[in-house]
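Worked example 2:
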Amino acid sequence: MVDKLIIVESPAKANTIKKFLGGNVKVVASMGHIRDLPKSKLGIDVEHNFEPQYINIRGKGDLIKSLKKDAKSAKKIFLATDPDREGEAIAWHLAHILGIPEDCVCRVTFNEITKETVRNSIKNPRKINMDLTDAQQARRILDRIVGYKMSPVLWKKVKRGLSAGRVQSVAVKLIVDREEEIEKFIPEEYWNLLVKLLDKQSKKEFVAKFYGKDGKKLELKNKEEVDNILREIKGKDYIVKDIKRGERKRNPSPPFTTSTMQQEASRKLGFTLKKTMAVAQTLYEGVRVEKKGTVGLITYMRTDSTRISEEARASAKNYIVEKYGSDYYENRYYKTKGNSQDAHEAIRPTYIELTPEIVKESLSPEQFKLYRLIYNRFIASQMASAIFNTMTVNIDVDNYNFRASGQNIKFKGFMKLYIEILENEKEEENIMLPELVIGQKVYEKKIDTKQVFTEPPPRYTEASLVKALEEKGIGRPSTYSPTITTVLQRRYIEKVNKQLYPTELGKIVNKLLVENFKDVINVEFTAKIEQEFDEIEEGNKVWQEIIKVFYEPFSQQVEKVEKELEHVELIDEVSDVQCEKCGKMMVYKYGKYGKFLACPGYPECKNAKPIVETTGVACPKCGAQIQIRKTKRRRNYYICENNPKSCDYISWNRLKPGEKWEPEKEQKQEEKVKKTRSKNKKTTKKTKK
């Protein structure tokens, strides 16, 4: 008989907590969910108030028996799953399996896994929060209805095995819409006119940019306009007309939320969302630190709050004042966004004294990089603003105006520790102009003209897509990573050089869903539903009512779409490739790995083959075509069309026209790649341990 049985979600968390508790205590893991809706059917009784028909998850029978046995031999049971909706629902399912009454005071949560927090939480349990549980149930049931009702439409009209989802389909729509914007974009020409000038007194050179005429800003739209200005200013004096000096402040960013951590880890560390969350999970659940034992290094990593505790604020103040001086400290409070839940703190280190340098030897390289990012971001969030001296100089040549700007840093403030560089943003340059005076003459050294074209909006990256989903109110911290991972696995989108592209399959699926379910596959509906989930969590709405309001018109729409599409045949695009077996012109089909060629005579003729893409560059060994192929992991490689018959050319590098093939150099590069991958694999294993 044990005094206390504590059930958590993961073995790592169980091991950490066990070391904090003395006495006759047993800590076990549920390994995530133990009950869920069945995969083989809808699993929701729509006729009886949408009652979910939960079943024990296949493969967890032995674990459930073990949990029941442990529960019978315990005087007191504590359900210590994660402190969010998902964790609350897991605790509720555990209570059901173990026969724990709903009003039993058995629920404990840990925003951080430290000795003090764990012990205090065990001393102060509460009842299971049914509002939190119902919010999770509402999401699970609504997503099941959407997925199980819309997906069969895709099976009938595109291919079996495809899936649709309330959030994933909207994410795909954002990427498809962005691609359409890029394709429709018409670049507009404009010109930059830059002049390098010399201040003879200081002998310093600086660059001024054309601004306008007679004090009014002008856009240079073509070469004729530029040439006309160059003719008119040729041989004329450059006179300093006006000088403006000032100061500019740059404030630190708030401590991390889930989405900002994912974005920054993507930009600065090159981590995928999935990797960021996996590494953060290990830092939260516990790492063995020398002289400290096993300890959770960060607070809970699924949060959209920027709030921090007063204790953490005080610890940050002491650290900053001691290390940098009082001038570098500023007591800051950050306002959490309106559509955010404020149940948890921001992501921060649990012990300020455990600096990244102190714990470095206890962490894998990935853990260290992410911990340093979280630690420095948090400390910087409580530091003083950076201050820049700024200087803007207006220079006239007759009635044409040029402008030069410069700045230098007066006080580093938080930038002494941490600088956030947003996507497509350059690091702030520290360039100061010479000390000029109004009325002085500066001398032309060189004039540069440059033709430029406006650019389309950039494609989404994982980081910018998370930012867009958050800004539009789509999903919550726990959903960003699995959503993007799912659409990548489904081959609706693909990642090339960090940019997200819709595949042909993704475009077809998106078109079918948007045309037929425009009330569901749209940003406004998805954001509105998220707000209603929040209201359920706050106890202001009943989850069944929200499902009911959604279900009736949605089910009617599904019936209508199925009837309308019943006699509609999707016509396959015909290629110019003839089937060598039966002579018919092959058509394009879409499979698990994308587009391929198939004979339209199926099932009589089952001929199918991949689409061959070429580089347009001749093979350096035999002069034949070089084909582009993909590995199972979707990495491109380049191979001669005669390989392996009469030519053995194969390469990871794409040759450019006129480029010399250097096999020895390629081999060295590939060996370097293999070493890096081997090192990463070892690191990943260490992280998992």
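The chain has a mean pLDDT of 90. DSSP finds 18 helices and 26 strands in the chain.
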